[in-house]
């Protein structure tokens, strides 16, 4: 079986390796040039290609006639997209004799669209996963081939959940690929009326609003914690990024309230706390000042300002 693979990031690396391990001939890989302005904390699909002698290209436009011609010339049985960042046009998808399939980082039909893991953590979900599905003109709308769930624990960051989803993606592809190669690809309903769609996120979306509930602030911190841009506030011209928090159990609230009244942020027993809009408290466990790790004690000068 011959495949053309569009891939990037850790999911792209692991799923490309699954195809090779299952004996699929990968005739061409389409990936992205790493951006000098992006924090590259993930594996290199181009590096896997170099290690395995697989030809790869990095076109800027997924809709270019040149790319379509290259894919058609490869005469692929399958086209796979593993965390490739652009939608593929239907003309290109039609070049695959046995279908075109995408690996998405959620349990479809929930969290269609961009950065699904970050959105799931932000909304306090307790579960997400990886879904292999048919590609269509609409994003993440085709029939479901297979999916694998992973838990989201109460203090998991999006980065930690992403690591689980990478493994789930690898397992999903590994388990269903034999059926696909035998022309027995499952096609399960992907009912979009029971799901949700979300767009991309910008660094500015990480701005903390302390008037929100403690749980909402906690989920924001988890959803955008490094290596993502982070949850932040600006004080005296400096950017203060909160990198880790913990919800304070209700049993501790009366003592904190009695000792510190209506103070927004304070130290108690060597620990830094913040009061949120619902009157509940977060313990702040890590901060950065102007994108550099800092001691919690450095917060003192901002609390006094």
From TrEMBL:
InterPro entries documented for this protein: Formyl_trans_C, Formyl_transf_N, Formyl_transf_N_sf, Formyl_transferase-like_C_sf
Domain of life the protein comes from: Bacteria
Membrane-spanning intervals of the chain: none
Every Formyl transferase N-terminal domain range: 24-176
Domain Formyl transferase C-terminal: from-to ranges: 202-293
NCBIfam families assigned to the protein according to its UniProt record, in alphabetical order: PRK06988.1
Protein name: Formyltransferase
Organism: Herbaspirillum chlorophenolicum
